[in-house]
Amino acid sequence: MSDTELHYICQPTGLRPVAQAIEFLTTQEFLADEPACRRLWDLVETQFRTRSKFLAVWGGVRFVAVHRNADERADGFLLVNAPVNWQIDYVVVGPEARGQGIASALVVETANQAFLRGVPYVMLTSKASLRPLYETCGFIPIEDPAPETADLSDDLLEN
Protein backbone atom coordinates (compact mmCIF):
# COMPACT_ATOMS: atom_id res chain seq x y z
CA MET A 1 0.00 0.00 0.00
CA SER A 2 1.48 3.36 -0.99
CA ASP A 3 1.53 6.40 1.23
CA THR A 4 -1.22 8.83 0.14
CA GLU A 5 -0.30 12.39 -0.68
CA LEU A 6 -1.63 15.45 1.13
CA HIS A 7 -1.60 19.09 0.06
CA TYR A 8 -0.35 21.57 2.67
CA ILE A 9 -0.44 25.34 2.98
CA CYS A 10 1.35 27.83 5.20
CA GLN A 11 0.54 31.50 5.59
CA PRO A 12 3.77 33.04 6.92
CA THR A 13 2.93 35.60 9.60
CA GLY A 14 6.36 36.12 11.14
CA LEU A 15 9.86 34.78 11.42
CA ARG A 16 10.37 31.44 13.14
CA PRO A 17 13.63 30.15 14.63
CA VAL A 18 15.65 27.90 12.34
CA ALA A 19 17.76 25.20 14.02
CA GLN A 20 20.30 24.87 11.19
CA ALA A 21 22.16 27.38 9.01
CA ILE A 22 20.43 27.53 5.62
CA GLU A 23 21.49 29.44 2.51
CA PHE A 24 18.57 30.75 0.47
CA LEU A 25 19.74 31.33 -3.09
CA THR A 26 18.28 32.39 -6.40
CA THR A 27 18.66 29.72 -9.07
CA GLN A 28 21.39 31.83 -10.69
CA GLU A 29 23.37 31.94 -7.44
CA PHE A 30 22.89 28.21 -6.96
CA LEU A 31 23.96 27.35 -10.51
CA ALA A 32 27.21 29.28 -9.93
CA ASP A 33 28.08 26.77 -7.16
CA GLU A 34 29.21 23.80 -9.26
CA PRO A 35 29.92 21.42 -6.32
CA ALA A 36 26.42 22.03 -4.90
CA CYS A 37 24.84 21.48 -8.33
CA ARG A 38 26.68 18.18 -8.69
CA ARG A 39 25.60 17.09 -5.21
CA LEU A 40 21.96 17.92 -5.93
CA TRP A 41 22.14 15.91 -9.15
CA ASP A 42 23.72 12.97 -7.28
CA LEU A 43 20.78 12.99 -4.86
CA VAL A 44 18.28 13.33 -7.70
CA GLU A 45 19.72 10.28 -9.41
CA THR A 46 19.42 8.14 -6.29
CA GLN A 47 16.19 9.45 -4.73
CA PHE A 48 13.74 10.23 -7.49
CA ARG A 49 11.98 7.56 -9.52
CA THR A 50 12.67 9.41 -12.72
CA ARG A 51 15.04 12.18 -13.60
CA SER A 52 12.46 13.47 -16.06
CA LYS A 53 10.12 14.40 -13.18
CA PHE A 54 12.88 16.48 -11.58
CA LEU A 55 13.82 18.08 -14.89
CA ALA A 56 10.18 18.99 -15.57
CA VAL A 57 10.03 20.87 -12.26
CA TRP A 58 13.45 22.53 -12.56
CA GLY A 59 12.29 24.98 -15.27
CA GLY A 60 10.00 26.74 -12.78
CA VAL A 61 12.42 26.80 -9.84
CA ARG A 62 13.22 30.33 -8.64
CA PHE A 63 14.98 29.66 -5.33
CA VAL A 64 17.05 26.86 -3.80
CA ALA A 65 17.49 26.48 -0.04
CA VAL A 66 20.78 24.73 0.76
CA HIS A 67 22.16 23.16 3.94
CA ARG A 68 25.88 22.48 4.20
CA ASN A 69 27.64 20.12 6.60
CA ALA A 70 30.68 21.03 8.71
CA ASP A 71 32.93 20.43 5.67
CA GLU A 72 30.85 22.93 3.65
CA ARG A 73 29.51 20.12 1.47
CA ALA A 74 25.89 20.60 0.44
CA ASP A 75 23.78 17.82 1.95
CA GLY A 76 20.23 19.17 1.88
CA PHE A 77 18.17 21.02 -0.71
CA LEU A 78 14.70 22.47 -1.11
CA LEU A 79 13.41 23.78 -4.46
CA VAL A 80 10.91 26.67 -4.65
CA ASN A 81 8.70 27.32 -7.65
CA ALA A 82 7.41 30.89 -7.32
CA PRO A 83 4.75 32.00 -9.80
CA VAL A 84 2.80 34.12 -7.23
CA ASN A 85 2.59 32.04 -4.10
CA TRP A 86 5.47 29.69 -3.47
CA GLN A 87 5.32 25.97 -4.17
CA ILE A 88 7.90 23.73 -2.51
CA ASP A 89 8.63 21.11 -5.12
CA TYR A 90 11.31 18.96 -3.50
CA VAL A 91 12.92 18.62 -0.11
CA VAL A 92 16.01 16.44 -0.44
CA VAL A 93 18.46 15.47 2.32
CA GLY A 94 21.40 13.16 1.75
CA PRO A 95 21.21 9.78 3.48
CA GLU A 96 24.21 10.58 5.69
CA ALA A 97 22.55 13.79 6.93
CA ARG A 98 19.06 12.53 7.77
CA GLY A 99 17.68 12.74 11.29
CA GLN A 100 19.49 16.00 12.09
CA GLY A 101 16.59 18.42 11.53
CA ILE A 102 17.86 19.58 8.15
CA ALA A 103 14.53 19.07 6.33
CA SER A 104 12.72 21.09 9.02
CA ALA A 105 15.31 23.86 8.81
CA LEU A 106 15.00 24.03 5.01
CA VAL A 107 11.20 24.29 5.21
CA VAL A 108 11.10 26.84 8.05
CA GLU A 109 13.74 29.05 6.40
CA THR A 110 11.73 28.96 3.18
CA ALA A 111 8.62 30.13 5.05
CA ASN A 112 10.74 32.85 6.69
CA GLN A 113 12.00 34.02 3.29
CA ALA A 114 8.43 34.05 1.98
CA PHE A 115 7.40 36.26 4.91
CA LEU A 116 10.32 38.65 4.30
CA ARG A 117 9.36 38.93 0.62
CA GLY A 118 5.63 39.42 1.27
CA VAL A 119 4.59 36.09 -0.26
CA PRO A 120 1.09 35.33 1.05
CA TYR A 121 1.22 31.52 0.94
CA VAL A 122 3.66 28.63 0.66
CA MET A 123 2.26 25.32 -0.54
CA LEU A 124 3.54 21.78 -0.96
CA THR A 125 2.38 18.26 -1.65
CA SER A 126 3.92 15.36 0.23
CA LYS A 127 3.28 11.94 1.69
CA ALA A 128 0.73 11.77 4.48
CA SER A 129 3.37 10.08 6.66
CA LEU A 130 5.32 13.38 6.67
CA ARG A 131 2.37 15.33 8.09
CA PRO A 132 3.98 15.75 11.57
CA LEU A 133 7.11 17.27 9.99
CA TYR A 134 5.19 19.83 7.96
CA GLU A 135 2.76 20.70 10.75
CA THR A 136 5.74 21.39 13.03
CA CYS A 137 7.00 23.79 10.34
CA GLY A 138 3.70 25.74 10.34
CA PHE A 139 1.88 24.02 7.48
CA ILE A 140 -1.66 22.74 7.69
CA PRO A 141 -3.12 20.03 5.44
CA ILE A 142 -5.81 21.07 3.02
CA GLU A 143 -8.59 18.56 3.40
CA ASP A 144 -9.66 16.75 0.26
CA PRO A 145 -13.31 17.54 -0.54
CA ALA A 146 -13.68 14.29 -2.48
CA PRO A 147 -15.48 12.32 0.30
CA GLU A 148 -18.26 14.93 0.53
CA THR A 149 -18.64 14.92 -3.25
CA ALA A 150 -18.81 11.12 -3.24
CA ASP A 151 -21.56 11.17 -0.60
CA LEU A 152 -23.54 13.72 -2.62
CA SER A 153 -23.19 11.64 -5.79
CA ASP A 154 -24.47 8.55 -3.95
CA ASP A 155 -27.52 10.50 -2.72
CA LEU A 156 -28.28 11.74 -6.24
CA LEU A 157 -28.01 8.24 -7.67
CA GLU A 158 -30.43 6.83 -5.10
CA ASN A 159 -33.12 9.47 -5.77
UniProtKB/TrEMBL annotation:
Keywords: Transferase. It comes from Gemmata massiliana. It holds the Pfam family Acetyltransf_1. Gene3D superfamilies: 3.40.630.30. This is Gnat family acetyltransferase:: Acetyltransf_1. The lineage of its organism: Bacteria, Pseudomonadati, Planctomycetota, Planctomycetia, Gemmatales. GO terms for molecular function: acyltransferase activity, transferring groups other than amino-acyl groups. Residues 22-158 form the N-acetyltransferase domain.
